[in-house]
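S.,

Sequence below, as promised.
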Amino acid sequence: MSKQIWAYIDHFKGEALTPSWEAVGAARMLAEKLGGEATAVVLGNGMDAVVQQAFAYGAEKVVLVDDPALADYRPEPYTDALVKAAGESAPAVILFPTTTRGRELAAMAGAALDAGVIADIIEMDVVDGQIVTTRPVYAGKLLAKAVAEGEPQIITLRVRAFAKPEPDASRSGEVVKVDAGLDESAVATKVVEYATTEGGVSLTEAAIIVSGGRGVSNNPDLTPPPDITDENEIEIWRGKQGFKLIGELAETLGAAVGASRAAVDAGYIPYDHQVGQTGKVVSPDLYIACGISGAIQHQAGMRNSKIIVAINTDPEAPIFKLARYGVVGDLWKIVPALNEAFKKKLGK
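The prediction came back faster than expected:
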């Protein structure tokens, strides 16, 4: 019997996240090297469209748990459903995208299945029949090789570290339906409502990110409204104006807006935008750091970006050691000039 390599499909109310298809691609790679079968795992309610997408992105089989108790993501029933499905099919490996839900579910499933968990990997290979993973350690300064004993092995994949396969709508395969026997009344948590936040490009999935740091407020020529007189409030106002500048460049590039912890702590922008050790870990093709000094905690979240551009008035700022391109100067002059140049280049 061939090994089953599972890829968990993370979705929000039936809308699959792009990193899920990266996991399917990674599962296909492992299946080819191990002589196994790439299987997508879909948990939810009314998931026919996601099942077809999973086949399109290369899954050879789909394990489906479709239950009303899974209509909203909650860790307890999702863990129970996944454990039940794993018990019936005995997968060798379960791959999860390192999304918020994927990371939580991987940890809980690992505990329930008494399985080894390797988190946030950026590379995988098969050596002598064993999966060898590579993951950053010490805030990304070093790379460590890790293996997990026993089965199933649970591995979470850093977003954008693995290529997303090209979809082919003509693909199809076997659907294995699992009845998890879930009891809604036994679930400890209930979803009461959802709160929407501002739209924009997802930070973790973005190919381009424009980030701002504490330095975005450094423009004494900005005159605050008459009703803002407190020095701290003036700084916050200037910081928010700086992020409007960052946002304009991001909009031109179709990019996401990021921020350093210093900018978030200062109140310039919400925590959702924070990149770093205590924020989001990103791997875009292009990362533009504006007014960010580049503390090690921030580097931990963005050092795997393919191209880093740094704009800072301090030529000794640590960010310049990471950057491929560095500009020493005032971001209030450089960012608008960049924005105009990109608009002209992109015909906007």
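The first helix runs from residue 18 to 34.

Coffee later?
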